[in-house]
# Entry
Amino acid sequence: MARYIIKRLLIMVVIVWCAAIVVFTLMYLAPGDPARILLGSEADDNVIQMKRVALGIDKPYLMQLGIFMYKTFVKFDFGTSWVYNVPVMSELAERLPRTILIGFSAMILNVAIGVFLGIKAAIHEGKWQDSTIMIIAMAFISAPDFWVALMLIILFAQKLGWLPAYGIESWKSYVLPIICSCFGGIAVNARQSRSAMLEVIRADYITTARAKGQKEDVIVRKHMLPNALMPVITSLGNGLTSIVAGSPIIETVFVIPGVGAYLLTGLNSRDLPVVRSCVVFLAIFSSIAMLLTDLAYAFLDPRIKAQYASGRRTR
Amino acid sequence: MSSENKNIKRQPEWIALCRRVVKSGGAKLGAIIFAIILLFCIFGPLFSSYGPNDIDLMSMYGGPTLKHPFGTDALGRDMMARLMYGGRYSILLGIMASFCSAFIGIVLGSIAGYFGGHTETIIMRIMDIWSSLPGMLLCILVSAVMGSGFLSTVLALTVGSIPGGTRMIRGQVLQERSKEYVEAAEAFNCPKYSIMFRHLLPNCIQPMIVMATMSIGSVMIQAASLSYIGLGVQPPTPEWGAMLADGRSYIRTYPHLLLVPGLAIAATVLAINLLGDGLRSALDPKLRD
# Structure
């Protein structure tokens, strides 16, 4: 097990490096000269050239890449925002908790609600509860989350006045963003846990449990649920990453100063250190989420755990 | 086998598939909604007396009336006409991007699965790195780099979903690869591309068809999100997401500018998803009777 974890950690480091190289290259190829965007179109050519030297974007590609990789991964220096002259690290330290708070709360909500709905649907397969829940799940997948967010703002912030429409003044401001972030996940989890439940619902060991007179809710809780949860656990990492990757959109709708919004302002003003650091952070975040999912999976599923314990890993 | 003979054998299979798809109520509903929306977008403009960008400052922010069934926007443009033209962009974006990523996924996945060894390792490691940046994030980055415009948006939307398709096709090819018909084809020296794409692919492509169909919907949502945050297709192009971005400033005063395009997206995506679901159960050998 330990060897597996170490191997996975090494792979993770390499993947984050590669992600950093990819984002660096993409931004290097992006049209628009950052120095000219910073200084405005009327600036003198000499001044712009000096600015280019000061920013270090006059050097050839490989050298810039080397400096960037060295600073980021050896010295952990994420640079300073070109537009605001604020160290990116301090800004991220302030913004990351907000994004992660929304991401994790949405994740917990969507797993809890999604699995609950999925089990309900599977137990009542073919009845009205099943079709209602599946229709709801379909609707949740189909509506764009930012549009749902706008509709909820109209309803709860403007018509009813219960919750603020934007900003981060109080805990109330987080309610709508979290709700809007979890819709898609609820649907995915509901569908997944429903089909996983349906796979085991006719299994022999369930019949055995019924035959020995076990109570129905114990059968559901102890015999079916562990199997139904496995695919949900596998998709945990993916779900969390996609929520965090969607954060630029939700944060734009609710005007929340999080990492996603920071990334977007960086992109619009060609503020390269900001863009690179945000992407590197999101890549690290998503690889950690994936790693933890894999480990949880290996740890929780006795069949896979046995594979690692015996030291034979068959691919 | 003559080509005529082939046609006779093929056609009933397709019709049977369509029948199976439409057999479930959900898929039937989806097909009907989607057909209506398609007809509305393709032929609607022929009957509309307004262009999508005709500005009429006399009738700004109009509610629904007989002349403008969905009202008018901030510049007095007819929302109905904009919806019809916008649908063409939105649906075409979804279909093209899903098709492109499915195509690339099929090619890469077949190569990785068929050749194995180093080729497979290299392709799959590249896919690992590729998918370490979540799809939406990659979309946003590529879209910002490529600039706005229809084709660059298609590219941005394609890029995010390639690894998933590649993995799936590779898995399918790996399952099929050791079967006897592949061995037979190899035995009489059939060219490799022919084995990959004429012998293996038809046996591997079913889940990909389902996946591509389902992804049209999610790609449409991504396209709308991109336009909403100011990337992707830009106003005044009447793409549905761009219309939502246009209407954002009037959320307090004229919410109908937000309601209508959003409902259009949701209805289209719902129809496509229902169809995809029907397709999935029609192709699923377990559910086939």
